[in-house]
Amino acid sequence: MSVLGYQDIVNGPLAQYLALSYKIGGDVAKQAEFVKLAFEAQLQYVSLATQCSQPGQDKQMALLKPTSDQITAIQDFREKNRASPFFNHLSAISESIPALGWVCVSPTPGPHVKEMNDAGQFYTNRVLKEWKEKDVTHVEWARAWMQTLTELQQYIKQFHTTGLVWSGKGIAAAPPPPPMGACPPPPPPPTFDLSSLSLDGSKDERSALFAEINQGEAITKNLKKVTADMQTHKNPTLRTGPAPFKATQFGSVSATGPAAASMVKDPIFTRDGKKWLIEYQKNNPNLLVENAEMNNVVYVFKSEGSTLAVKGKVNNIVMDSCKKCSLLFDSVVASVEFVNCQSVQMQVLGHVPTISIDKTDGCQMYLSKQSLGVEVVSSKSSEMNIMLPEDSGDYTELPLPEQFKTTISGKTLKTVCVDSLG
Question: I need a surface site. Which of 39, 315, 376, 406 has the fewest CB within 10 A?
């Protein structure tokens, strides 16, 4: 039943998502191919769990590699197509596809899927907002994907509540997974050389051991004296040891040493149609966008220690995965957005209707008098402050709330901000 339940997801909401992806076409359809392969690989893994007992960790990682490779391909495809007109679609899938890592989560795999679904919802909401008046196909696409992960969570709750179940018995209705192969046969029993055994106590090694123990106090004469340089409390260098092993998460890849150095990319500052792409800038205080138009979008990605000035009025400015960066701009038509950033600040000289902050730690917003009607939408963020201008030219600092209290009122929830006393 576990396999059949997973097949219902593949043939139901996932099939609908794939059909809508192919209908939209372009980058959405290309990414959907990776998603299809990822779910097929996981279906084979779930099928294997119904036939075998749980293998060792090394064997599990080898069996999970097909799924892990597809997750990496989905995320890489998004990174390589940041200028795509369907970037929000690609990001919605890229942010939430780690939900397939539930097979490695115990004892709460269901909540893990919900957490990943919520992570992608930031971008699915963008798709709904952008396309609800243009093309209903995109709206149905976003809902089909969210429904896929919702049903995956329900499936886990029904069949694998505390983690993937390795039942060790085959199910007739489930076809064997051809790529994975069958479970390895058990190792042969160890062989013993009976000729080496002897009933003669004088030749038994245990006799020698007992004889040595029976020496009494004389047994200590062969012990080595512990000197001061051998004692850990007098020699701190002896206390250091190897670093503890830390297990990596499913589908994650860590890069250190020369491999990490090879991932450093060249800075990019270019204009692609209506989009200004500013990526991988480091310690550059002189970034300038000028001669921009009202329908232009400025996108800043993975930059550090840099300052960007935007002259004129543009439609939208996005800072994604930036650290210790500053933004100075005149006016925007739609919004300024900060996603996955650390220690960033912005100053508006003209008008900004909306500021969106998502998964960001440290955001200072200096407003102008024309922007006092701004709406600030924040989620999963901390250390946010709004700086209000005064007639003297100074600013008044107001922190955005990070704590909330929710109470139940009938069949609804009432949520209010809680002032921090710490």
Answer: 406
Place of tokens 């921009």: 292
Return the bridge partners of 307, or none: 326
pLDDT one-digit tens code per residue, 308-317: 999 989 989 9
pLDDT in tens, 129-146: 889 888 999 999 999 999
Within-domain flag for 203? no
Q: What is the CATH number of the domain that holds 150?
A: 1.25.40.330
Q: pLDDT digits over 206-246, tens only? A: 555 555 555 555 555 555 555 666 655 555 555 444 444 33
- The phi, psi pair for 10, rounded to 5°, reads -65, -40
Residues 191, 199: Cα–Cα separation, whole Å: 20
Determine the length of the chain.
Answer: 422
Residue 217 pairs in a beta bridge with none
One domain for residues 155 and 272 = no
Identify the burial level of 391 via C-beta atoms within 10 angstroms of its C-beta, where 0-12 means exposed, 13-18 middle and 19 or more buried.
exposed
Residues 155 and 281 in one domain: no
C-beta of residue 254 within 8 angstroms of C-beta of residue 248: yes
Position 218 in a domain: no
Counting the structural domains of the chain, the total is 2
Residue 49's H or E segment, with its range, is helix 26-49
Which string of DSSP letters, residue by residue, matches 245-303? P-PPPTT-----HHHHHTT----EEEEETTEEEEES-BS-TTEEE-S--TT-EEEEES-
Per the structure, the complete domain to which residue 98 belongs is given by 1-160
CA angle 67, 68, 70 (to 5 degrees): 70
Judge contact between 378 and 399, C-beta under 8 A: no
* 125 φ, ψ (degrees, to nearest 5): -65, -35
Sign, CA torsion 384/300/287/372: negative
